[in-house]
Amino acid sequence: MPSDKMTPSPEVALDFAREWVEFIDPDNAEHLIAADMTWLLSHWTCVFGTPACQGIIAGRPDDGCCSHGAFFSDEEDVARLHESVKLLRPGDWQFMKQGLGKRGYIEEDEFDGEPALRTRRYQGACIFLNRPGFEGGIGCALHSMALERGIEPLEVKRDVCWQLPIRRTQEWVERPDGEQILKTTITEYDRRGWGEGGADLDWYCSGSPDARVGAKAVWQSYAPELTELLGEAAYRELARLCSDGRVSAWSPCIRRPRSPRRIPGNGVVPTTSTPVTAAWASTAPEAVRR
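Now predict its structure.
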């Protein structure tokens, strides 16, 4: 283990008890939302750039969860990246020369047996990941650029990158009276969300007590992302339910009351979405495509 990393706490079991709440979307009487309050009321936060972040691949803690690059969800996702790259300056992106060169910043791969595109991997991680020693600081070039310019990171990042570790699934369900409604479920994107590959991750933050050190609860720190996933009216109702005190914040993933220190020279620890790999994730499209 690198000397600047803390000894990780054991991750919690995947099947611990959770509390849920269901409510109807104020803007759509045929839209039911099921929200995992145990997750949303937790104080999980991204701990990238601190001793708590171990990285998903052993021996590469400074990659965080960006080791494999990110698959695209659709053509709109690809188009957004092209527009976002136009906003980057050399001081934002360590590998701008390589990314704008002949090989570009997107590569072809295969996902679930089908051809797919992902952000190019360069020197072992996503080409948009700035590494230690870069003057602009480590971390996602797109994320850092957005924070510096006052832009919501979800406006410039890949779908999978800004949504994780929120998991949204949707399905049509039939009520006893025969009426069909759309049910949206909001919960934690735990290891199982990645399919069989999730078990192979060396470390994963959403189940780690070491990442439960946020100043705000997830429903607050991820307000822009949850609003994008649910709509403004539904998020307002979710926020009311989270803040009225009637639902407890019980969780087996409680961290001792201290925050991990930042590593000097490692830039800003993100407070909203963090880039997350979609590699080896056989079930990811159901959760990340909008």
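Strands lie at 20-24, 31-36, 106-111, 114-119, 121-122, 125-126, 129-130, 139-140, 166-174, 180-188.
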